[in-house]
Amino acid sequence: MADKTVEDERITIELVKYFLSVRPLVAKLDAIDADTFQSQGLRASKVISEILLFFELAESVVTRAGQLRDRVVAFVSWAVHEVCTEAFIANAERRPAEASRFGIILLCARRYGVCSPMLARVEALIRSPGYFAVERLPFRHHEATWLYERVTNVAVAEQLVCRSSLLSRFTHPSMMARTDLYAKTHSAMFETDFGRRRSEHCAIFPDVAIALDHDLAYTFCDADWDLVGEICLTQVFLECCGPTFQQADAALRSIYKKFGFIPSITFDSRTANSLPQHDADLYRFIHSYHTTLVFGLLIVCAANAIPARIEKSDIEPASENVLAAIVEKFGVSELDYGPMNEDWFSDDFEMGLDTLIDGYATRCYVSHGLGDARALLEQCAEHAGPLARDSHAFYARF
Length: 398
Known about the structure:
Blueprint: H1 2-21, H2 23-28, H3 34-37, H4 44-57, H5 59-64, H6 68-83, H7 86-94, H8 103-111, H9 117-127, H10 138-152, H11 178-191, H12 201-204, H13 207-221, H14 225-237, H15 243-259, H16 269-274, H17 277-286, H18 289-304, H19 320-330, H20 353-368, H21 370-379, H22 386-395
Helix pairs in contact: 1-18, 4-6, 4-8, 4-18, 6-8, 7-9, 8-9, 8-10, 10-11, 11-14, 13-14, 13-20, 14-15, 14-18, 19-20, 20-21, 20-22, 21-22
């Protein structure tokens, strides 16, 4: 455990230094050609806010690293000047709900002792009656509530607490869009203050734990490392880390060890390699920064969180006949971006059997329909674990 703590602190410091180094790339985001970089309108203010969230949560590690703190303070000061402009603040003063966009910057600035008149105006807006005077999606309401409580140190009035959440009901990823999965993970982040406040979700809604395992198996088998990281975070926050978490956490560490970053589902190595070096660096950043940052949050939050009740278990490795059944169902070409492609991982990583069967059964449902998903589960029934058996029972209800 001590070795893992040392390793996690080393990775955290490495990632803090990386995000400090990309400031010139972040500064370019609002002026780039979106088609060339396939940036989908990514804005510098969003990236800055997310980096500052990581810095805020990693503050204790940063402080122990000595002079690194001074560099982070300089970055935070630059971020406040870059994002909290007179134009943006004046617009938010007409519509105080917009202040939530600046809330994380305010929290990080406080953590590192950075002061600014603009930040005082942001705080006044979050404290104002107009802050809650709009309709938000449930997970966005959780975020707004979390920011209000962190900024003001005042609990939100009962009538403003959002009771609707995907965390409060049984779900299965075969029926969900990626946006639904993100809504679930973000609700957990804000409801638990990134793992610093205990949640009773798993006690009140016992289906939550296995539903998250299904989500993790599917996103793992889809090589969607951004969602894999966020679902792992959710399991840390809700204290339900089991064998599927162990495997996904090991996979992310293996990918980071091999590449030095975690690519997103939009990253295309051929596009990156076709660009001039300075453009390739920016492209790689755009299509890996969030996934890499989520990995950093997982490392930091797992260390900061209330100690989880981790269910440890040996992970049964995938057998040749199960792999053959999956290849037969999908065809090799459909698997070249998933974990069946061993190029993702360093040599010490091994795929687990139950996760593999369950995740590819969900992919089968999404790509080919219910009949094929059932057929794959039945073909692999001899090797099915708790997840695959639960999915088989779920599909039998239709």
